[in-house]
Amino acid sequence: SSETLIEHEVDIEACALSSDGSHVAIADERAEVTLLSVNDQKQSRKVGVGRGRWLTLGFSDDDDWLIAGGVEHAVTLWPLALGTRRPVGQSTRFRGLPSPALDVVFTPKAKGFITYGVNAHFRHWSLDGKPPGALPEFSDNGGDPVNDLVISQDGRWSVLACAAAGPSECAPVKLLKLGETEKYVLGHHHERATGVAISTDQRWLAS
User: Fold this and answer.
1) C-alpha distances in angstroms, 206 versus 5, 81, 162, 194?
2) How far apart are CA 48 and CA 50, in angstroms?
3) Distance (Å, whole) CA 137 – CA 147
4) Element (H, E) at 35
5) Along the 207 residues of the chain, how does pLDDT read in single tens digits?
6) What is the pTM of this model?
């Protein structure tokens, strides 16, 4: 069965479901981000307005944070108070991306997040008591475009599924240790690796 949470008068560009399933965040074509309660459709809160289109939304695994990335080469982070009627907290913007953010992924326990975008860039920010941008930026600009990204359960490793840099080249699957610049190519696909996943015991990788 399905249920309509809101009748929206403009197109929805991105949406995300909280980890506990109690809330949905939506971003519309006016760059407005709204937080909706699944159990109480009247309890909706406006989170914020961007300066350009939002391309992705995501909740942290503890639902304490909502993050959004978009075309303005930046991501925005909001502290939440789910289950209460308190307003959403003051946002923090993370700038300096070389291209629009296509996706944002939290590390376990919301100790940081990774964003990736066009031109094969991605960046890891720490939220664990360190200043924004304290960890190095990993960049493959001009290399292999990123199609998907996953982080290991212990938050130490990231795996990238990439597209081939050229029509006659193979598409790599890359392993990176967060906080370091070293990266390893685990294998290749023909033309494009579209997705990647790590088993919960961290013994297996599928792409």
Assistant:
1) 35, 35, 13, 11
2) 7
3) 18
4) strand 32-37
5) 566 666 667 788 888 999 888 888 888 888 888 888 887 766 677 777 777 788 889 998 888 889 998 888 888 888 886 655 555 667 888 877 777 888 888 888 778 888 887 666 778 787 776 655 555 566 554 467 788 888 888 888 888 888 877 777 888 888 888 777 677 888 888 878 888 888 888 889 898
6) 0.78
